[in-house]
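Thread title: Can someone regenerate the structure for this chain?

I was given the following input by a collaborator and told the matching structure tokens would be attached. They weren't. Posting the sequence so someone can regenerate them.
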Amino acid sequence: MSSLSRLLRLCAPDARRASTTPAPASLLAANRSRSYALIIEDHPDVAEAMRCALEQMRVHAMIAHDGETGLQIAAVMHFDLVLLDILMPRMNGFEVCRALRKLPGLHDLPVMFVSCLTDAEAQTEAAGLGAAHYLCKPFELFELQAQVERILSAEAQRQPPRRDRAVKRLPGEV
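Best answer:
Regenerated them for you:
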């Protein structure tokens, strides 16, 4: 069974309750404040699996299926973390990350690359863009959750949580 199949099975409503994969205790803390993540991933099944894994951690996740849409969403909402694929049509993940860094207030937003590229060149480029982590596909549910928890914990130590989650109006909206 593929990692994606296991993720989707674990994310099924009935399987969530019966999952035998133990989550770290810190992920299950009742008093954990809700965090927000943006997933930019062009494969819907992978994006949904990641969203489900984050929701199990009390991390609310929004999905964008391409870089342009992801940038538009990031420009109007505040996120604690971006999970970013690299190989996407029209605009790759490195280009998206560079554009994110140029948006007002987002130069230090943690970005975790999640990609099937396993070569050192891709990982070096991600590090050069200030990546908080680089996770290779296929991955296990606990790997994704552990890295997200590590990044969010480090971010919480570094600065207070971003409380203003209100969506700003897009240009031309009434």
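Residues 6-32, 169-174 have pLDDT under 50 and may be disordered.
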